[in-house]
Amino acid sequence: MRQPRPRATPFSSVQFSAWHPLGLSKLSLSRPCPDSVPSRRMEPGEELEEEDSPGGREDGFTAEHLAAEAMAADMDPWLVFDARMTPATELDAWLAKYPPSQVTRYGDPGSPNSEPVGWIAAYGQGYIPNSGDVQGLQAAWEALQTSGRPVTPGTLRQLAITHQVLSGKWLIHLAPGFKLDHAWAGIARAVVEGRLQVAKVSPRAKEGGRQVICVYTDDFTDRLGVLEADAAIRAAGVKCLLTYKPDVYTYLGIYRANRWHLCPTLYESRFQLGGSARGSRVLDRANNVELT
């Protein structure tokens, strides 16, 4: 099922979209907008944080809670820079106006936004929304659970391929502050310049905690495309740990600490100073094999 493109809005507007983590929705409209610490080192087999609801989360939250938080954020207005209809020369002003460490999840008179913001996003010139048959995927998922058959990474991969829900994202977790804003600025420029397609970052929560940047790829089964996106992220100046998660896990509400004991992240990438030209070492977590 090909989703409609979000309706274009100027960079000074908030775009409201429902249903898809990138605003690829059945409903899309716009309304005027009112005026870190790197992750600790983990071993390859250890569970990593993946996409959290905007503003972070506390340990101990269930997968169901994280899914509900993420859905609520998707439904709230977004701050979007859309390079398909906004000149690239306006990006720096937009980044200066809406640094993610200062944009608050539920709005605040002292922040750049007085109303709630679900996500901050950048769309590249060649970005074409296509989330696949999400409804068919979710129906098949319900049938799978009812059948009593085992839920494995292989069965989820096949469901994703069958229903063409193939997008995925590299995840970057950083504490609010300069490192986060600097990383997001580099990622957003890479999107607008065509080195990446689309990305988003969560706003700041009242209780603080780390924020997450999501950098999307078209096809999680296309390993070369996933690695190329990792290289573009490193070229943008991001040096912290990255993890990669297919969207099929997000759509089905499978987060960390899920009841099936599945690890939703396929790859992890670590910055490698003075190593390979690509600047990182990428590990296939399922097979414990280095890819670069």
TrEMBL record:
<feature type="region of interest" description="Disordered">
    <location>
        <begin position="25"/>
        <end position="60"/>
    </location>
</feature>
<dbReference type="InterPro" id="IPR023398">
    <property type="entry name" value="TIF_eIF4e-like"/>
</dbReference>
<dbReference type="Pfam" id="PF08939">
    <property type="entry name" value="Bles03"/>
</dbReference>
<dbReference type="InterPro" id="IPR015034">
    <property type="entry name" value="Bles03"/>
</dbReference>
<protein>
    <submittedName>
        <fullName>UPF0696 protein C11orf68 homolog</fullName>
    </submittedName>
</protein>
<comment type="similarity">
    <text>Belongs to the UPF0696 family.</text>
</comment>
